[in-house]
Amino acid sequence: MIEDVLPAAVRCRAVHGAELDQAPLHPEEAGAVARAVAKRRAEYAAGRACAREALAALGVPPGPILQDAERRAPVWPDGVVGSITHCDGYRAAAVARSADILTLGIDAEPHAPLPDGVLDVVQSTADERAALAELTAHNPEVHWDRLLFSAKETVYKAWYPFHRRMLGFNEAELFFTRDPAAADRGTYTARLLVPGPLLAEGTGPDVFHGRWLVRDGLLVTAIAVPADPPRG
């Protein structure tokens, strides 16, 4: 499913259900979840297993995928960018060569309304809420509030490797479009509301562009920034 919203340069591995929840961890990885509850350990193991399989498809030898000390983000091999996601019933990883893709962010969520009050935590802007209301009126089958939450997660995941700090939900403004040929998919744009470059100085676009898809009770969102974006 995640592969349907990512370009050909990205290698993906995803599983529905608990197929990889008992996958072995490298000893260096195990310490990160030694005190976690069983559900968290299973998600972590499955995510790492998906990532190793995606890296193998890229031609990268298997090895431990550690996490940084600040935000627990995955640390990828040199020359590789990637992202991992998991939710109830779905685990996925996506990787690419940094020569092809500058940065990646993926997210998966159950396709259901956000719990009461969570949209306030997401701190959506007035313009975002107005746009969501309009989208809901035209296409109520999509839970646009959950889609907004998911897409903002991809913005953070794509942005973090360059800035190494938390990005608040209120520091990016997102807007969605629907595919006119299919109501269950489309694109989104994300404009950062913080000062400074989106990525590194002189690198990357002014706005992130992503894709979304709803299918089989799940929704997925993804951002993949080309290392050499098309010109003209």
Q: Mind sketching the topology for me?
A:
Layout: E1 11-16, H1 27-30, H2 38-57, E2 80-87, E3 90-97, E4 101-110, H3 118-122, H4 126-138, H5 144-163, E5 172-179, E6 182-192, E7 208-215, E8 218-226
Antiparallel strand pairs: 1-3, 2-3, 4-8, 5-6, 6-7, 7-8
Structural overview:
- With 232 residues, the protein is an alpha+beta fold.
- Helices cover 27% and strands 29% of the residues.
- It has five helices and eight strands, in the order βααβββαααββββ.
- It has helices at 27-30, 38-57, 118-122, 126-138, 144-163; strands at 11-16, 80-87, 90-97, 101-110, 172-179, 182-192, 208-215, 218-226.
- The strands form two sheets. The protein has a five-stranded antiparallel beta sheet with strand order 4-8-7-6-5. It has a three-stranded antiparallel beta sheet with strand order 1-3-2, with helices on one face.
- A hairpin with a 2-residue loop joins strand 5 and strand 6 (182-192).
- The protein is globular.
- The two termini are 31 Å apart.
- 39% of the residues are buried.
- The model has no long low-confidence stretch (mean pLDDT 89).
